[in-house]
Amino acid sequence: MFLLVYLKHLFQGSKFDRYLRLIISYLAPYYYRNSKKVAFTNETKFIYICYGGLGDCILAFPFLKNLSKKFNITILIDKKFRGIDTLLNDDIEVIFYIKNQILKELKKYSKTNKNIILIQQSPILEFILFHIFLKKPSTIGFLYNQNQLAFEGFPLEKKEIKTDNKFLKYSILEKNIFNITSKNMSKQHNIIYKSKYQNLKSSFIPNSSYFILSPTKDSNWSMGFLDYKIYANFIQKMIENTNLTPIVVGTTIDKKIIDNIVKNLPSKFKPINLAGKTNIKDLIGLVKKSDFVVANDNGVHHLSNFLNKKTLTLYNFSSYKVYNWPNKNSNYIFKPLYNCMPCVGKENGPFDNYPFKCPWNIRCKYTIDEEDILKKLGELEWI
Question: Which of 15, 214, 244, 374 is the most buried (most CB within 10 A)?
Fold first, then answer.
């Protein structure tokens, strides 16, 4: 797996990478024919592998929580996201993995769990490896296309999905699983599970009302955020015109970007800078108590929407049609001033959500400015 991760970073986004994925996608239906036939019993478990960023995991959590109320389910989560499992129900088995050792973890799991159904989140080639190390179980999900549900090991035909929105796709997947599974596979009792995150608190919460700004994207991306000065101007105007305290959040890796934003501010307009100071549980506590959240299309945007917090997402490179949540509190700004926008979220084929190499010096980072954000917040009556 270490070699696979290395090669992925080496060739990611290249023509070689693209053609390899297309070839494997073409051959995948022939491979998946060897999946085990589904056999529903009370011992059957669903297994879901959170493979991607923090936001990719959280986006699937409402679906997984609903599934766990009726079926036994195991979820594998990258160890670096430890703490995000507090958003899940108590009865969900969570296994934390190290990315370079995930195949070893899957092999170990398959030895003690013989009757499993794999839920595939994306038609990417890594899932074929996961499937092999799980000993080729019945598989349901997005095996070949982002807009198609496939059922390998089930006596069912593929189904086309008409929406591009990932949240709604999971809802459709949930309905299909409930429709095709046998009653004797369901849990024999109904339990009301309390959410573990409800009592989470953060020591970083100020005494005054505040909003959260999340101005970064995963460090592997050269896009996904606006120009430094736009965030700085927005913070300054919020301090000048409202009674809300700005709190800027980010990881240790994000600290350099956030420091550049703060450097563009006069000393009397400094926000509370928590870059690199919070863990995921702190972040959950902060988001819960905030007035609202302003974020890029990132993990904080998905976390805030999961918590049904007032959320304004700033889209420049990615598609709001794909990544926005259908909550009433979920709002966004997207100004496609260039015909290349969005550059991520348009693919339905065998490509994961990896960084696009922009030939235009990420010109979309200037498509939204502080006035756009302030105007939208005013229209929403959040300020």
Answer: 214
